[in-house]
Amino acid sequence: CDFSHCQLQDASFEDCSFIESGAVEGCHFSYADLRDASFKACRLSLANFSGANCFGIEFRECDLKGANFSRARFYNQVSHKMYFCSAYISGCNLAYTNLSGQCLEK
After folding, report:
1. What is d(CA 27, CA 15) in angstroms, rounded to the nearest whole number?
2. Structural domain boundaries of the chain?
3. Per-residue pLDDT of the chain (106 residues; tens, 9 = 90+)
4. Whole-angstrom distance, CA of residue 92 vs CA of residue 65
5. Distance CA 101, CA 49 (A)
6. Which fold has domain 1-16+25-98?
């Protein structure tokens, strides 16, 4: 599936599968607007979130194994030196997930 560049702000997904059995590539969310989107108990293995706006996103009990979050944004920059981070990730499988270079705070 391909949600690249889609407007998915405030969208809610529950018990959804975003990967086909045996697939070598997951769903594309590249450069999508996912602000305040919610994913609960979803299969998102190998999903590509590259460049997506993920500020305020929620992942609960999701399989994110091998997902790519390179260049994704979990922050809202309000000035050159000030920003706010917001994401809720709980009970998820993050094995092999690419979060390199991300700005996340506890």
Report:
1. 15
2. 1-16+25-98
3. 999 999 999 999 999 999 988 778 899 999 999 999 999 999 999 999 999 999 999 999 999 999 999 999 998 888 888 888 899 999 999 999 999 888 776 6
4. 9
5. 14
6. Pectate Lyase C-like (2.160.20)
